[in-house]
Fold each of these.
Amino acid sequence: MTQPAVDTPAGEQQPVNVAVTGAAGQIGYSLLWRLVNGEVFGARRVNLRLLEVGSGLKAAKGVAMELMDSAFPLLSDITITDDPMVGFKDAHSVFLVGAKPRQAGQERADLLAANGGIFGPQGKALNEVASRDVRVLVVGNPANTNAAILAANAPDIDPRQITAMTRLDHNRALGQLAQKLDVPVTSLSRMTVWGNHSASQFPDVSELLVDGKPAADQLDKNWLTDEFIPRVAKRGAEIIEVRGHSSAASAASCAIDHMRDWFNGIPEGDWVSVARPSDGSYGVPEGIVSSFPCRLVDGQWEIVQGLAIDEFQRERIDATVAELVEEFDTVKELGLLS
Ligand code: NAD
Ligand code: LMR
């Protein structure tokens, strides 16, 4: 008798269709191998759809050749295309990485017009051909507003299924805090990043726990405001400055964390930072894609309710949300929301 390769319930053996745009780019090169090694989709086989612009298709073919050469047992099929209607067909999990990265000295807002035009057509294609339970993560910057454009162009997809990545900011904060407190990152829970994936973001430790106990008393207020918050918020620029390119392996790793958690859940009692369309919680206008503390409820990222917000937090949240509203108004004026 033949043994199944992996012992999982029969219903979980259906292949998962996973689309990645920008597949031949820096982030794609770190991301793709971890999509087929079982850590995100468990024992399900993976049909990979690699999306690139025309000039990137040859390099994407090279990436596909290397994936084949890695002989992953769970890699079922690879499609290479520049057509979102092909790449997103019946997609269950979509990573929208393809965009133009920021150069030294540029702010994310500079990328609005350049990258905004990509996400309208991609939203329309998702709306038309993706699986109705598709889970979408926008990584390409400006990620929050690109996700807002996408959601506006995909009216038949539940907006909660369209997210943008602030997990990198969340994990950057955990890295800094673990070093400061001299504990492993696994000791930390309930970290929150609010707002935009930009220098205006608010990494907030008000609810942070260390080994289940409040951490606020162990952290110096001046260190938090003068070093921690700006260090995390400006880490992207710091990496560009030091490495000479925008972060790639860390971004891919955090995209994996985001999607893995979405498919598999997070530890009881904890939450993670997810940028999703606001439902009006914490005074963030509806439709704006903002980072919030989120937990999974019935497979959707729901915003953790009832957290006390003091004056300092209010000011910081309002500032980053004001930037998001400004970006939203700009793309509206550019006609990118329909
Ligand atoms: P890269 O230039 O190495 O790769 C981008 C790839 O996207 C290129 O191969 C390009 O041909 C492709 N591409 C461009 N438009 C496309 C489209 N419409 N469809 C399909 N493919 C397309 O860049 P990278 O370093 O991989 O970064 C990608 C994006 O991710 C950038 O916008 C960067 O700023 C952003 N980023 C976001 C975070 C985050 O935390 N949200 C972190 C790091 C980087
Ligand atoms: C990052 O945070 O590393 C990326 O968003 C790249 C950037 O432009 O900062």
Amino acid sequence: MRLPLPRWFAHRGGGLLAPENTLAGIRLAAHMGFSAVEFDVMLSADGTPVLIHDDTLERTTNGQGAVAEIDDARLFALDAGGGQRIPRLDEAAWLCRQLGLLANVEIKPSPGMDRQTAQVVCEQVGRLWHGAAIQPLISSFSLAAMAVVQEVLPQARRGVLFEVVPSDWLAILQRLGAQSLHCDADTLSKSVLRDAVDRDIPVLCYTVNDLAQAESLLADGVSSLFTDRLDLFAPGRGR
Ligand code: G3P
Ligand code: MG
């Protein structure tokens, strides 16, 4: 099945132009003409799904320690950059709905929290996007998380993420009921791409910040690209 996918996803909200995984980033992506954003979702110590990439706070906030060990009161008091607060999934969902954005919800479990994170994300995604015209795309590197998506939200459109696509990628997608292959642009082989294209399976590549690489991947049949360079690839620029 070919999903109607946009060519570009703004990576981690607003890419490099805004603090990553923040509402300001999502707003900026929409403002720049992007119709789709990707963001990462992890659980706080209170079990609240929040937007953050690393399982520790140091790189993207003024806090310290493991996200999974920080309760909401402490987490939401932190600065995630430019005075932005770490958003909850429900806030990001409502913003995406309001702005008409396709959301790629990447389930990013803290170590050992794969099933629990996916369970909570699925419950919220099902509720937050209920009846929405633009349904989210769920993805994860965690096969355990994707197995939960299949159990809990089988109707969700979803893709499996790979840093390096394994030889049995097709069997994995089929087993998990996933419709799309998401992978690192730098490690994707021509043969895997050709195989996916021949099977009409969309391939989505991260993280593409270079014009020549983008043109080459798209010419070879990649469906969509995740970019940090919103300035370079804003859809209004004709690419
Ligand atoms: O979902 C695509 C991309 O975001 C995967 O890599 O590490 O940026 O979450 P990462
Ligand atoms: Mg991500």
